[in-house]
Amino acid sequence: HQVLRIKTKNEEEVKQLQLLESLEHLQLDFWINPSAPALPVDVRIPAASVQSVKAFLESQGIEYSILIEDLQDVLDKEKQDMAESAQRQRSSSFDFGAYHTLEDINEELDHLASEYSFVKKIQIGESYEKRPLYVLKFSTGGSNRPAIWLDAGIHSREWVTQASALWIANKIASDYGTDASITSLLDKMDLFLLPVANPDGFVYTHTSNRMWRKTRSKIPGSICVGVDPNRNWDAGFGGPGASNKPCSDSYHGPSANSEVEVKSVVDFIKNHGNFKAFLTLHSYSQLLMYPYGYKCTRPNDYAELESLGRAAASSIRSLYGTTFQVGTICKTIYQASGGSIDWSYDNGIKYSFAFELRDTGRYGFLLPANQIIPAAKETWLGLKRIMEHVRDKSS
Amino acid sequence: RAMELPPSHFPAARAAAVAMGYLRYLRGGPGRGLHLRELRRARRQDIDDVGHKYYLELELEDVLDKDRTVSCTAEVLYPLGSKTSAPDVQVTVQGELRSTEEADKEFYNRIRSLEKELVAENIPDSHGNVPPELEPIHRLAWVASGYLIWQNSTENTKFHLAQVKHVKQVKRSDEDLQFDYVLLLHEMVSQ
Q: Where is the active site (chain A) (predicted)?
């Protein structure tokens, strides 16, 4: 069935349409009836009548356009949307398929921690503007088990990452006990998830500048604000691919770990002492990368990381066909110093990967909310593949 | 003498972004939005005293004709040493692109029938939404940004249109339509 919008130019054409309206065998369903020349007429036409109605309109020189190409498609999609929405209402009041404020995200972290005994919300530090840095700890027991680190939103404008991290947290929590892979993973290892690694920047993207990337720290001697937190780690700090200019979006900061958001993570991981994997989410470009960024030479574990990366990319692709490119940071995108996974790798955490999620530039940072859950789902498959490998190697 | 490049890595992707900018400028419009589905192949040739030339095979999509695949080849030459000269681009589209006559006419008539000059901002909005009636305006922004991206690219930049910050229709005494855009471009490499 098609829905046409007909634009009549005069009374004569209106009369023609009223004539059409009277032909019952066509089974036309006028959503807006023909009444006056200035008003558009919308009519649903059963498939069988579409060609003859169009032929009639064209022969009379009456202008029309296709409002809905295929009504069934629209109805199917709507039904699906409503079912999914109902499903969401039933399972949780938090809509994982929408973008949320920091307050709402923190509330959901509390909700997850209260609903699942093996999930705890811990605070590992404070941002520059004194916002708590909340990490979800997934632990089913043991004492300082080998652990996996996962963070999102270090660059605040990359909204699909914080949103995906929430979905992933909920997925892991709700699937423990029923999904064999997640269950065996959490029975052996702990998972630490930092969904909003740069809360000051994140709030700023909501209140003032959607395109803000850096932290919000004041820089002595400069009118510009903020440091690129992914150029601030102690790995080739200050080298190529980072700027020494405070107003630059890739300003590395006055010194390594000058940003409290970075230092808090560094201290936490060092004090823990038993991390086996360090995974970080960014957007956009659809890439799955491993060290190094600060230099263009291959890491010692190149073969294993490349192979694992390809397997993870393959898992990602299996869901919706989304392709992620795999490689070292330097070869895949560009040389960039002071990055987090270079630091973690050089500090003994072999399985260090950086993901760049959807898309490849069509919407970029402004990824429509209806892509959050598909992005989260496919990314999760890639993360899971890596985590399974880490689990198997750590036991 | 041309070196094969991994199409998945950024050096090739940067050249593809330039080709896409140029192509959008040439062939885009309110009724046609061209996007890159896949870069199939890329080669680079270093030409003494001239510059670096990239040979590309691209698979495109016309957003208003999604079921079809459009193939295209492009050559992007970055002139040696010149920081002010735009890359030289040649593009060949295989086959015909879907006609935009109907869509262009509809857009033209709709804008002409507005009581006041069109003004809009933040396209897409923070959540990635574009109201359907602003989609042609968004596609027109891709044309404009295509020109800017082509003119301002070097071998070490990768530009994307991040957002239409503001668009304002300019009142004219003739029958042409004119829009002033303020665009946000994202440069990947310097981020």
A: 356
